[in-house]
Amino acid sequence: MFSKTCEYAIKIMVFIKTLEAKGTHVGLRTIAKEIDSPQAFTAKILQRLVRADLLTSVRGPHGGFKINDQQGPIYLKDIVYAIDGNALLTNCVLGFEKCSSEAPCAVHYKFVEIRDELKKTLSNTHIEEIAGIVASGSGALKLQ
């Protein structure tokens, strides 16, 4: 459903959030190893998350990345929009350039409810919730 980059971005945010109680910044190598991603690819994702103000970055020997939750909780929609934009919720599922309620494609109306539900879920699920599930070990969620 999401791009591979977006999946990794969500994993990054959840991983960092699980370590937040320790109050330390998490380095690139640690993050890349935990989410099983090449460092260069992980670095690019981290840059995008910093540019989107979802993470803060500190240089130096005690540096790394930390969640920027000064604006309140971070929801999945924030991560998805930062990485993939809103195409998932706005573009035609069949790939047509022009598709709307005024000029719908053959399946436009079949996906209206699905998109509304997806948007609602992305807007109501925050990373703290996911990190809590991961940290507790309950459920089938694993970072790798």
Structure description:
The protein is mostly helical and 144 residues long. It has a single domain, classed as Winged helix-like DNA-binding domain superfamily/Winged helix DNA-binding domain (Arc Repressor Mutant, subunit A, Orthogonal Bundle). It is 53% helix and 6% strand. It has seven helices and two strands, in the order H-H-H-E-E-H-H-H-H. Strands 1-2 form a two-stranded antiparallel sheet. A hairpin with a 5-residue loop joins strand 1 (55-58) and strand 2. The radius of gyration is 17 Å and the shape is elongated.
Layout of helices and strands:
Layout: H1 4-18, H2 28-35, H3 39-51, E1 55-58, E2 64-67, H4 76-84, H5 87-90, H6 108-124, H7 127-136
Antiparallel strand pairs: 1-2
Helix pairs in contact: 1-2, 1-3, 1-4, 1-7, 2-3, 4-6
Highest CATH level, the class: Mainly Alpha
Structural class by helix and strand composition: mainly alpha
Radius of gyration: 17 Å
CATH level-3 fold name: Arc Repressor Mutant, subunit A
- Work out the strand percent: 5-15%
How does the major sheet shape up?
2 strands, antiparallel
Number of strands: 2
Distance between the termini: 18 Å
Q: Uncertain runs with pLDDT below 50, 5 residues or more?
A: none
* SS summary, helix count: 7
Instruction: Provide the helix percentage.
Output: 40-55%
Classified in CATH, the superfamily is Winged helix-like DNA-binding domain superfamily/Winged helix DNA-binding domain
Shape: elongated
State mean pLDDT (0 to 100 scale). Answer: 89
Estimate nothing, just give the exact number of structural domains. 1
Element pattern in H and E: HHHEEHHHH
The CATH architecture assignment turns out to be Orthogonal Bundle
